[in-house]
Design goal:
Layout (H helix, E strand, L loop, with lengths): L4 H14 L14 H13 L2 H17 L1 E3 L6 H4 L12 E2 L10 H4 L6 H17 L20 E2 H18 L2 H18 L10 E2 L14
Parallel strand pairs: 1-2
Antiparallel strand pairs: 3-4
Helix pairs in contact: 2-3, 6-7, 7-8
């Protein structure tokens, strides 16, 4: 029987994930999406191999724990964007939203006490230490122009993380802030005619990127 394009794509994804050493992937904005996707697939397909792969990704980061949980003083020098291939281990909590993605993977029903504790720390960090702009919308990061703008990427690494942590803890603070950030980001980023989102916008000037963000 000939496989559909969807089935071929899914199998290619699965093979590529299993061929990747999980300990080579950090918790930053790019790498965290791989274990997130693998975790979703493992649950949906009841895939033991993928689930084991995800566990092997989580373990060293849990062991390393929080590597920076203090609000930054000198934001320009303290902030670090962890990109793909960076050998960083552990969960970094600073002013950059892209470093907050660990709960997207770790907020599973069978999460350990340690994993739950770290997810709560990440969510609390978002509530208490994120850089906020007009009306309380969370800025993308601490460097210019990220500290003056809101990005659609930020919405993903804020509201998704808070929603997942709410699902884990049932703490309504996380649900409320997740919804609030969706509404605020939509106010600045969503095109009223098409409903599509622009990539980023400056709340003070109203300036937005020219094209819509479909990725």
């Amino acid at each position: 029987m000939q496989l559909s394009i969807y089935q071929v794509s899914i199998e290619a994804f699965r093979k590529r994930v299993l061929a990747t050493e999980p300990t080579t992937l950090n918790t930053g904005w790019e790498d965290v999406l791989v274990p997130q996707g693998a975790n979703i697939a493992a649950v949906a397909w009841k895939d033991v191999e993928l689930a084991d792969w995800v566990d092997r990704w989580i373990s060293p980061h849990l062991e390393a724990g929080i590597v920076d949980c203090e609000p930054t003083v000198d934001r320009a020098s303290r902030n670090k964007v962890i990109g793909s291939g960076d050998p960083s281990i552990g969960i970094r909590l600073d002013d950059y939203c892209g470093n907050w993605g660990f709960p997207l993977v770790a907020t599973r029903p069978d999460a350990s006490v340690l994993a739950r504790d770290i997810c709560v720390k990440v969510a609390d960090h978002i509530l208490d230490h994120s850089i906020r702009l007009k009306d309380g919308v969370i800025a993308h990061g601490s460097w210019p122009p990220a500290r003056e703008t809101v990005w659609v990427d930020t919405l993903y690494y804020v509201s998704s993380v808070l929603a997942e942590t709410y699902n884990l803890t049932k703490d309504l603070r996380y649900a409320r802030e997740a919804i609030q950030q969706v509404l605020l980001h939509s106010r600045f980023l969503q095109d009223r005619t098409t409903g599509a989102f622009f990539h980023d916008a400056n709340p003070d000037t109203g300036l937005r990127t020219a094209g819509f963000w479909s990725r």
